[in-house]
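We were asked to recover a plausible sequence for a given structure. The inputs and outputs are reproduced exactly as logged, with field labels preserved.

PROBLEM: sequence recovery
POSITIONS: 199
GIVEN STRUCTURE:
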């Protein structure tokens, strides 16, 4: 079993930045789901583990440590007794809570265009890693996307799966979307790859 102190030390030392808006949406999700008390518990545990993030002073367009952002998810799972499904729901909900994502997506009307511009969206939120469209078939109703050079915690994979689920339901305009992580660095692959199918 993972030791929180070791996980925190590892994540906090990782290179890579994320826009404050991503952190803000995670905090807002915690608040809406479990209330201010849950936010305070996560913040307190984060500080115990060496984080310097101040949840009350996150600026949406400033850059912060992606490792510490990932630690929010790890700590929420620990102190709130979450399952992986709760982490998935957090990722799924961020699209609805992020004003930056809503602003970006209003200009794109097709799923293929969203997938092809995925790395542009990624760069608006992260300065580490990259995302690319590997395959897309409107006729056969599937797409594959790959995330490279993004080495955080395994819970990021669960979170991202939820995010991609919500994104695809929105841009494909279907509730019958399936997202599967078919390759993962935590299973020995050199990148993450998600296969998305829909009806």
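RECOVERED SEQUENCE:
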């Amino acid at each position: 079993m993972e030791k929180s102190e070791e996980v925190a030390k590892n994540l906090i030392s990782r290179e890579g930045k994320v826009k404050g808006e991503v952190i803000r949406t995670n905090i807002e999700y915690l608040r809406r789901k479990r209330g201010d008390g849950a936010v305070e518990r996560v913040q307190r545990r984060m500080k115990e583990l060496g984080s310097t993030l101040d949840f009350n002073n996150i600026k949406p367009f400033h850059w912060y440590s992606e490792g510490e952002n990932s630690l929010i998810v790890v700590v929420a799972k620990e102190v709130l007794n979450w399952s992986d499904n709760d982490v998935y729901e957090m990722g799924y909900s961020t699209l609805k809570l992020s004003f930056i994502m809503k602003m970006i997506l209003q200009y794109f009307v097709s799923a293929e265009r969203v997938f092809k511009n995925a790395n542009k969206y990624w760069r608006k939120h992260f300065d580490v890693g990259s995302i690319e469209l590997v395959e897309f078939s409107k006729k056969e109703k599937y797409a594959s996307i790959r995330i490279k050079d993004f080495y955080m915690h395994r819970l990021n994979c669960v979170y991202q799966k939820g995010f991609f689920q919500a994104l695809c339901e929105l841009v494909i305009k279907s509730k019958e979307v399936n997202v599967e992580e078919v390759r993962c660095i935590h299973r020995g692959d050199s990148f993450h790859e998600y296969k998305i199918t829909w009806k």
